[in-house]
Amino acid sequence: MRVMVIVKATADSEAGVMPSRELIEAMMKFNEELVKAGIMLAGDGLKPSSKGKRVHFSGTQRTVTDGPFAETRELIAGYWIWQVRSMEEAIEWARRCPNPMPGPSDLEIRPFVEPEDFGAEFTPELQEKEERLRNRLTDAGH
Amino acid sequence: MPATELGRTIDAVWRIESARIVAAVARIVRDVGLAEELAQDALVAALEHWPEAGLPQNPAAWLMTTARNKALDRIRQAALHRQKQQELGADADARGEQFTADPAADLEADHDIDDDMLRLIFTACHPVLAREAQVALTLKLIAGLSTGEIARAFLQSEPTIAQRIVRAKKALSNAKVPFEVPRGEALQARLAAVLEVIYLIFNEGYAATSGDDWMRPALCEEAQRLARMLAGLAPAEREVHGLAALLELQASRLRTRTDAEGKPILLLAQDRARWDWLLVNRGFAALALAQQQSGQPGPYELQAAIAACHASARTADATDWKAIVRIYDALARVQPSPVVQLNRAVAVGMAEGPAAALPLVQAIAEEGLLADYHLLPAVLGDLLAKLGRRAEARGEFERAAALAQNQRERALLLERARATLD
């Protein structure tokens, strides 16, 4: 299974405070462990939300707003994508992560939606089949 | 922490750490089977100790230290036993001779664990073992799968796999296989065996060779992990990156290889938007790493390069078939085989048209080396159909269907045979 491990933003990350040398080194070591275990697929840090934009959807309307965004605790400062065997394995790896922030901080682990979670209706073949069925039903209704 | 949660945590820690612990202990006791036994003793100790004492600050280090101490105890006991026997005038070689290592040298904390992991991988894939034993041992010791999981993945009974693993460990012990990374000329041959084991594991997941079970994706993921792990442990080995690249690129198409009913979709008909672009890019990166190493490209890297040609084409029509033919030429040089020739002929057919490819495939058929290979008549059928020779095409598709082991493939081929009548 694949998980996204989300580094939640803090006041520091939102203020653009760069990590200390010690933290950078600890993070590099941790990332190296992830690579060696073969579970690291991707990972990056993100700039503070002041550099971000939001595109708001409402019906057919799109409204673009500039960052920063107020709700710091809901924002993200970085992410990894890991390939793990279980949520427990992801938790165990997350436990080993150095605290990514100078103060208290959170990592959030979210499993990817897997193809089987979609159900089959997203594949073009089945869509086509349903379409045919619907047409038949409509035809029958006439 | 509630008991069930603790149990799951211990399980997760064990899966992450077991290979490293077995590797570190094996360096002390010089016996992989015994090392696994001692590592498991450490796990049992954790299962007894942690529910009362609570999870230690660093569970991985706790397990490692406990296992190492058990190994050193075992060596001391053996030495003591030997000493007593000597005092009794008994044959000094009678027992304990397997413990030839110097325990003091092994006490340096965290002595290069990466080397131990490499040694463990090479030992699990040692040539005294049959290929299927190498595969089972690699999954057990390096990937940390349980016997039951391996049995399920290979559609075998658990006792069969358990016995295979026990025998493999005994064979290593009996042959006194040294716990080491081979050097010099032996390295390349031994590395080739390791890569083949990983590739076999991937293929077992990629396409079941018989029956209805088209894929067992968990094995693909394990193989990808093993290949990435090996690339981290042996970064100067060109072909290791080649294999990693090949697996990432092949896995990127896993979810588009079958339709909703489980019928196979051929590469050129796949929905490229649904390829796993994260894995495609990882494949490109691994291929670039391979190409940066010295030496000549090996068969895995060349196959990865072909997969990369497909992945870099936005649409099937945009495929650079001429480049693919050139890579097949190189592949045919390093790994001459009629299957490579057949694939090359398919690429020639795409690059220059079916008329150019047909004589090539007919020549392969005349050699008779691929007489039982269903894809040979399948390719012939395809070329003949494209040339409008429908009756001949139909015969070839029917022959291919009769040879296909996989029911899904057989159905697809019969469908193509029928289509020649339209």
What share of the residues of chain A lie within helices? 25-40%
Quantity of strands of chain B, as a count: 0
Q: Would you tell me the structural class of the helices and strands of chain A?
A: alpha+beta
Work out the helix count of chain B: 18
The largest pleated sheet of chain B is described as: none
Strand adjacency order, main sheet of chain A: 2-5-1-6
Order of helices and strands of chain B: HHHHHHHHHHHHHHHHHH
Order of helices and strands of chain A: EHHEEEEHEHH
- For the record, give the distance between the C-alpha atoms at the N and C termini of chain B, rounded to a whole number: 67 Å
Average pLDDT over all residues of chain A:
86
The main sheet of chain A comes to:
4 strands, antiparallel
Please provide a brief summary of the model.
Chain A is an alpha+beta fold. Chain A contains five helices and six strands.
Protein model, in words:
The complex is a heterodimer of chains A (142) and B (422). With 142 residues, chain A is of the alpha+beta class. Helix content of chain A is 36%, strand content 27%. Chain A has a 4-stranded antiparallel beta sheet with strand order 2-5-1-6, with helices on one face. Chain A has a two-stranded antiparallel ribbon with strand order 3-4. Chain A is flat and about 45 Å long. The N and C termini of chain A lie far apart (48 Å). The model of chain A has no long low-confidence stretch (mean pLDDT 86). Chain B is mostly helical and 422 residues long. In chain B, 69% of the residues lie in helices and 0% in strands. In chain B, helix 8 runs parallel beside helix 10 (238-251) and helix 13 packs antiparallel against helix 14 (338-352). Chain B is elongated, with a radius of gyration of 26 Å. The relative contact order of chain B is 0.06. Classes of the chains: A alpha+beta (142), B mainly alpha (422). The A-B interface holds A 32, 35-39, 41-42, 81, 83, 85-86, 88-89, 91-93, 96, 115, 120, 123-126, 129 and B 8-9, 11-13, 15-16, 60, 114, 221, 224-229, 232-233, 255, 259-261, 271, 278-279, 282.
